[in-house]
Amino acid sequence: MSRLQVSRVNKSFGKRQILDEVSVSFETGEIIGLFGRNGSGKSTLLKCMLGTLKADSLEIRIDGEEIKPSEVIPRQKIGFLPQETFLPKEMKVRNVIPLIFPEGEDQDKIFYSTGVAAFDGKIVGKLSAGQLKYLELLLLAHMPHPFLLLDEPFSMLEPRYIELVKELLLSLKSSKGLLLTDHYYRDVLEVANRSYVLKKARAYEVESEHDLVTHKYLKINNE
Amino acid sequence: MNNQSAFWKYYRDFNFFNLAFSALSAVFFGISSGLLIFISFGMGVGYLGYNFFRKDEYYLYYNLGFSKSYLIKKVWILNLLFMGPVLLILFLFL
Questions:
Q1: Does residue A49 sit at the B interface (CB-CB below 8 Å)?
Q2: Cβ distance B62 to A73 under 8 Å?
């Protein structure tokens, strides 16, 4: 079991403070949900954790060992699923898989995963939103990172793929720790062990839709 | 960072923009100038072109363990290694 601790994250854009002493901690086997209105700093937090966006201050520890933000990518400790696809759009799926996994055994794990045969002859740019997100998650799932940050994995997916992605996320818990943000709050609450909402640059723990209403992420309670 | 096939994909995509600009420069200013641009100013064009058309793909390389600065430095060093000697020969003998 591995533990990721991210603490004292501060980030400002000009005079506007986006993150104020935000701390998140989780371990492999856990799924953490992160909510927040648009512009609340969810993606900013994830990018600061990955090291692609410089935070004003940030401490990252994995199993107690402090890691500089610049070391996160080279050491492959944290993987990231961005909102936009990270795969080359002009390539066929069957060529992308060997590009990422040179070993045949690793490739087979992807090729023989549920549903991949249906689109492995397609060009990445021609995949549906659901197929694309599912493929990206499968690829990330087989990479060595113990922790994954997922920026809106359910966004724009048809219900069939939302279910497939949820199944995949739950199966990933056995080997990885996941932090995911999404506005599909019911799906996130369903798979997450714990959740937080970002409000006025700070993170608050939430357990239910009612808490999301309390923190004014939701306007009305739809229960 | 052992995935060399992924790196070469980045190398080709990055240099596509660099090469297009350098080849155009070569047409107007000569081969030597084109090569010189390829290993210098063309790197900036490659960077801008990649950022404009393929920015999201950087996350593929981040996930594979390549930082942006590592990728760009390695592309530049390889361009110097490949094109530097050619440029030197052109300057010395032509």
A1: no
A2: yes
A202 in helix, strand or coil? strand
B62 and A80 in contact by Cβ < 8 A? Answer: yes
Residues of A in contact with B3 (CB under 8 A): 100, 102
Q: Does the model's pTM come out above 0.90?
A: yes
Tell me: the pLDDT tens digits for B31-76?
889 999 999 999 999 999 999 999 999 999 999 999 999 999 999 9
Rounded percentage of chain A residues whose pLDDT exceeds 90: 88
Q: Which residues of A touch B58 (CB under 8 A)?
A: 52, 86
Tokens matching residue B39: 């290993």
Class of residue A205 by CB neighbours under 10 A (exposed 0-12, middle 13-18, buried 19+): exposed
Q: Are A152 and A120 in contact (CB under 8 A)?
A: no
CATH number of A187's domain: 3.40.50.300
**Complex confidence, ipTM:** 0.93
Task: Read off the amino acid at residue A19.
Answer: L
Band (A222; pLDDT cuts 50, 70, 90): low
Domain count of chain A? 1
Contacts of A82 in chain B (CB under 8 A): 56, 59
Distances (CA, A) of B87 to A48, A116, A148, B17, B36: 42, 48, 45, 20, 7
Digit-coded pLDDT (tens) for A47-74: 999 999 999 999 999 999 999 999 999 9
Angle between helices B68-93 and B4-29 (to 10 degrees): 40
Domain with A134, as residue range(s), is: 3-222
Contact B63 A145 (CB under 8 A): yes
Report the alpha-carbon distance of residue A91 to residue A122 in Å, rounded: 8
Contact B65 A74 (CB under 8 A): yes
Give the nearest partner residue to A99 out of B5, B59, B70, using CB atoms. Answer: B5
